[in-house]
Write a structure and sequence with these properties.
Blueprint (H helix, E strand, L loop, with lengths): L17 H10 L2 H27 L6 E5 L5 E6 L2 H12 L13 H12 L7 H17 L2 H11 L10 E4 L15 E4 L5 E10 L6 E8 L10 E6 L1 E2 L2 E2 L3 E6 L11 E12 L6 H37 L1 E2 L2 E2 L4 H33 L4 H31 L13 H7 L1 H4 L4 H27 L5 H21 L3 H6 L1 H25 L5 H11 L10 H8 L1
Parallel strand pairs: 3-6, 4-6
Antiparallel strand pairs: 1-2, 4-5, 5-11, 6-7, 7-11, 8-9, 10-11, 12-13
Helix pairs in contact: 2-4, 4-7, 4-8, 5-6, 5-7, 7-8, 7-9, 8-9, 8-15, 8-16, 9-10, 9-12, 9-15, 12-15, 13-15, 15-16
This protein binds decanoyl-CoA.
């Protein structure tokens, strides 16, 4: 046999994560950090084992069996090993429950766990995110009966009592535009509400509960007439007969995640609050799941970069390891700088969410969170695809071969830009958030983050924010131009926020003798902050003619 290439090895995802260690050291009191350590280390162990297991086994998809041998409807889904382990891992390490503890660091500690668990979980984090969102929306609703019924299950630290919750919004007509929802809620003579309709992308169909948007019978059209309902899916061990799983989706990626099309035929349901404004009621859930999306995207980038970085030391070409090839090293460093910006922004959102929920912030910080959440989601979603594509290329042909486990990284990454609102939907949302107090709050925060930091960075960030402000002003009277430029504005604001956060991190690390974050900042700035679009409407029409 001739030459055999060593496979990339994954270093311990917690012990070797410089960024996560620095973040926790900068933000958490020592006692909280010490208390968190065991869970993070164990989740890192789990991630390492999951990677080794995946390399040694053939990948499987979940299998739906709709009927048993005797003709009974069973809708049984066989899950992968990681999914079967999900309830144990998530509850033993309080992945979700920790985010609802009563202190301002709760969300940061939760998302540190999510970051380490996400890739290993094979997207079990998707229904976990929705369960977290459901718990958050229930709390915001103030519906005491439902809170007492569901929250102890959603936030359980015991797999025996833990429930997953879905988020049933998407329909064939109502995807981004959920105002087109066709599912109807009818109230029977017994006073019980029941749901009738079809949900088109149900990602937590193996769960025990869901929040669902539906139109109360006789209510008007549009999204304001929708109501938000809580449903349960199981009668003991059996799925309720009013819930049928039509089929599992055949998706580009996230293969282990059993995404389903379902039919609701009179499924009992309970409104969370008023029988209208369901989108407003589900918004707290959306903002939490969008944070999961951002942290998941960053975790995905971390995995891709870790493998590419390791491989660059193992693989020799033209007489030396790839890491010693200037252009390859340059490529890896470019990836690292973008990743560090994305990491900083996603975790700033996580930290701010915890502080806002705990009430330890000003209204201006709440406005900042409202803007940073869609910015972090949309930018990290796009970046994950770009970095994973680049990472695959770092392996040459091997990156294109399925049983290396590498192509899956790219396929899976595509989901972050689609889930929880596409890039354009989120860009329009960011525009709304910026129009209120958001832009001013961002400017204030950016100034604070980079105080005492690199003056060149401060100049570049201020100039980019000025340009974004001018762009918004110039198009403010023309709604079409404003919307056409929304993605460019959102990406520019996201990059400005990330650069300012990198500047803060660089100053903190420099004081401890670590020059690496400052290098990430310089490289990130070198990639430019401005992403504003030229929205010449005439050209757009011509190009599409
Ligand atoms: C590890 C990763 C895990 C991630 C888990 C992922 C699971 C994936 C499963 C899914 O993808 S589920 C599908 C997710 N679908 C979406 O996210 C829908 C995307 N579409 C939007 O976000 C639209 O912008 C939206 C549906 C919100 C637009 O609907 P409308 O009916 O035109 O709403 P409108 O008028 O913009 O907002 C209604 C109210 O909600 C307004 O408040 P008011 O009634 O008081 O005026 C808005 O201000 C408020 N609102 C909307 N979005 C908000 C919000 N409030 C706070 N935060 C937001 N993000």
């Amino acid at each position: 046999m001739g030459f055999l290439q060593d496979a990339p090895q994954l270093a311990h995802p917690y012990r070797n994560d410089r960024l996560l260690h620095a973040l926790l050291e900068r933000t958490l009191p020592a006692a909280r950090r010490a208390a968190l350590q065991a869970d993070l280390d164990a989740l890192g162990d789990y991630a390492l084992l999951a990677w080794q297991r995946a390399a040694a086994t053939t990948r499987r998809k979940p299998v739906l069996t709709q009927w048993d041998a005797w003709g009974r409807r069973v809708d049984r889904i066989e899950l992968t090993a990681a999914w079967q382990e999900g309830p144990d891992v998530a509850t033993y390490h309080a992945v979700l429950a920790s985010g609802h503890e009563n202190h301002e660091h709760a969300r940061l500690e939760e998302f540190a766990r999510v970051y380490l668990y996400h890739v290993a979980s094979e997207f079990y984090t998707c229904p976990l995110a929705m369960t977290d969102g459901a718990a958050t929306a229930l709390k915001a609703s103030g519906n005491q009966a439902l809170i007492e019924r569901a929250l102890p299950h959603f936030l359980s630290r015991d797999p025996a009592t833990f429930w997953l919750s879905g988020q049933w919004m998407t329909e064939t007509h109502g995807g981004s535009d959920v105002g087109q929802t066709e599912t109807e809620a009818r109230r029977g003579a017994d006073g019980q509400w029941r749901l009738y309709g079809r949900k088109w992308f149900s990602s937590a169909v193996v769960g025990e509960a869901a929040l669902a948007l539906a139109r109360p019978e006789g209510a008007g059209t549009g999204s304001g007439a929708l109501a938000l309902f809580y449903v349960e899916t199981m009668d003991g061990a059996a799925r309720k007969p009013e819930l049928a799983i039509d089929r599992l989706k055949d998706k580009l990626g996230t293969h282990e995640l059993p995404t389903a099309e379902i039919h609701l035929d009179g499924l009992p349901a309970w409104p969370l609050g008023e029988l209208a404004n369901g989108v407003r009621q589900v918004a707290p859930m959306l903002n939490v799941t969008r944070t999961w999306n951002a942290v998941g995207a960053v975790a995905h980038m971390a995995r891709a970069i870790a493998l590419a970085r390791d491989y660059a030391e193992r693989r020799q070409a033209f007489g030396r390891p790839l890491i010693e090839q200037p252009l390859h090293a340059q490529t890896l460093a470019d990836m690292q700088a973008e990743f560090e910006g994305a990491f900083a922004l996603a975790f700033e959102v996580a930290q701010l969410l915890g502080r806002v929920e705990h009430g330890s912030t000003t209204p201006r910080e709440a406005a900042l969170l409202r803007l940073l959440t869609p910015l972090a989601k949309l930018w990290t979603g796009k970046l994950a695809v770009r970095l994973c594509s680049e990472a695959l290329e770092c392996f040459g042909g091997a990156g294109y071969i399925e049983d290396t486990g590498l192509p899956q990284l790219l396929r899976d990454a595509q989901v972050y830009a689609i889930w929880e609102g596409t890039t354009n939907v989120l860009a329009l949302d960011a525009l709304r958030a910026a129009a209120g107090d958001g832009f001013g709050a961002l400017r204030g925060a950016v100034a604070a983050w980079q105080q005492g930091g690199d003056p060149h960075a401060a100049f570049a960030i201020d100039a980019a924010l000025d340009a974004a402000a001018s762009h918004l002003d110039a198009s403010s009277a023309d709604r079409a131009a404003l919307e056409a430029g929304a993605r460019g504005v959102a990406l520019t604001l996201a990059r400005c926020a990330a650069a300012a956060l990198l500047a803060r991190q660089a100053a903190w690390a420099q004081a401890r003798g670590d020059a690496r974050p400052a290098a990430a900042l310089r490289r990130f700035l070198g990639h430019g902050l401005l992403r504003l679009a030229d929205t010449g409407a005439d050209d757009t029409a011509l190009l599409l003619a």
